[in-house]
Amino acid sequence: MALRTDYPYDEALSDIENLFRRTVKDEASRKDLLNYIEKCKKQKTVTFRHIHEKYVKYTNDYKDYPTLSSKDKEMIDDLFHFWG
Predict the structure, then answer these.
(1) Sign of the dihedral through C-alpha 66, 60, 35, 14
(2) pTM of the complete model beyond 0.85
C-alpha cells in the first residue's frame, strides 16, 4: 500500500465527514463529530488524532464497530500520515 503524496485539509475533512455520515448511527454523536469537523474547516486544519479519539470513544460507548472497507482503512492510514 502506497501513501498519497499529499492530502489537502479540505479533502481530508470531506473524507472524514463522509465516513462519519456513513458509520455513526447515534444522531447526537454524529452531530457532535460533524460540528467538530466544521470547526476544523474554519481553522483550515485537520486535528486527526483528536478526531480519531472522539470516534473511538463513540464506537466504544455505543458498542458500534462498523466494518470499514479497505478504502476507508487506507484513508485512515493516510490521515494519520499527513495529519496525525
Answers:
(1) negative
(2) yes
